[in-house]
Design goal:
9 helices; single chain; elongated; mainly alpha; 0% strand; 68% helix; 201 residues
């Protein structure tokens, strides 16, 4: 579902992540279409997407997909939508997310919230210095993720519900148009066969 007929090479996929060829607004609309066409209720789709978006505000970048799917199952959300939601965490947003949750975590610990993350910050550095970096980021990330869940869930549910209603209206109009047009004879084969059957022996 939703896969390209001709998969892009790895280097092109990486470029699309860093800078979408057709622009961020079109990429956002594309994600909206993918969510709207998923099977399930607006709640399930929005809850799944919100779970994926929420875990993006935690420092556990290597297991975001797993966390998104696990929380989505607990919330009875759509698992595919949760995977889509993890796009909220990307190379453009992670620097801001990490700086924010680090500052919030240090504030919770009663430390200087204006302190900056190390300039040479890497995943290895984070996990090699858990009490210096990972612990504050975890403390700041959990409440931020909770708030983010609601911030993404509410508009996503509204948008998915609107998309599904509009899609049902389009389908109804299409069916009514076909019914109004009536049956269409293709090639006249059926008419010829009937004429031949009625011909005198």
């Amino acid at each position: 579902m939703f896969k390209r007929r001709n998969p892009l090479p790895v280097i092109h996929r990486m470029r699309e992540v860093l800078w979408p060829r057709r622009g961020w607004s079109r990429a956002t609309r594309y994600i909206g279409h993918r969510l709207g066409r998923l099977p399930g209720s607006p709640y399930r789709i929005a809850a799944g997407f919100a779970c994926g978006a929420a875990v993006s505000f935690t420092p556990f970048i290597g297991i975001h997909f797993v966390l998104a799917m696990g929380t989505s199952l607990m919330m009875r959300g759509n698992i595919i939508a949760s995977a889509i939601g993890t796009v909220v965490g990307n190379p453009w947003t992670f620097p801001f997310i990490w700086a924010w949750i680090f500052a919030v975590g240090r504030w919770f610990l009663g430390e200087d919230a204006t302190a900056h993350l190390p300039e040479d910050l890497t995943l290895a550095f984070i996990f090699d210095h858990p009490w210096k970096v990972l612990w504050p980021m975890t403390l700041g990330g959990l409440p931020t993720a909770l708030v983010a869940w609601f911030l993404f869930f509410i508009p996503a549910q509204v948008l998915v519900a609107q998309y599904q209603r509009a899609r049902r209206r389009r389908l109804r109009k299409k069916v009514m148009r076909r019914l109004a047009e009536g049956p269409v004879m293709h090639g006249g084969g059926g008419m010829k066969q009937e004429t031949g059957a009625e011909a005198p022996q």
